Amino acid sequence: MQIQVVKSKIHRVKVTGADLNYIGSITIDEALLEASNIIEGEKVAIVNVNNGERFETYAIKGERNSGTITLNGPAARKVQKDDIIIIISYATLEFEEAKTFQPWIIFPNENDNSLT
């Protein structure tokens, strides 16, 4: 049997922008992607702490150490600049493997989205 488990989580980052006219996705600072083990193009779930919205999109790489967290395309309607969000990705694992799997969870600074 296989189950889905949390693979990666960027806990509580501040939205720095929302670009309705971009094709789609979420732009995430490259340093945050690496620290959380999320790759460009990976499906991610977004949870907006401010308004309770939950939706899915895919990650694209933003400038390293810029703090960029920008929702693009239709997802831009689900957030406002300065909202706090949680970004989550999931993996499908065999049940026994899932019992010992350790996800990559990071807690950036909410003020500037830095890792320090």
UniProtKB/TrEMBL annotation:
The active site is at 25 (schiff-base intermediate with substrate), 58 (proton donor). Keywords: Autocatalytic cleavage, Cytoplasm, Decarboxylase, Lyase, Pantothenate biosynthesis, Pyruvate, Schiff base, Zymogen. It holds the Pfam family Asp_decarbox. CDD domains: Asp_decarbox. Is synthesized initially as an inactive proenzyme, which is activated by self-cleavage at a specific serine bond to produce a beta-subunit with a hydroxyl group at its C-terminus and an alpha-subunit with a pyruvoyl group at its N-terminus. InterPro entries: Asp_de-COase-like_dom_sf, Asp_decarbox. The modification Pyruvic acid (Ser) is found at residue 25. Belongs to the PanD family. This is Aspartate 1-decarboxylase. It comes from Flavobacterium ammoniigenes.
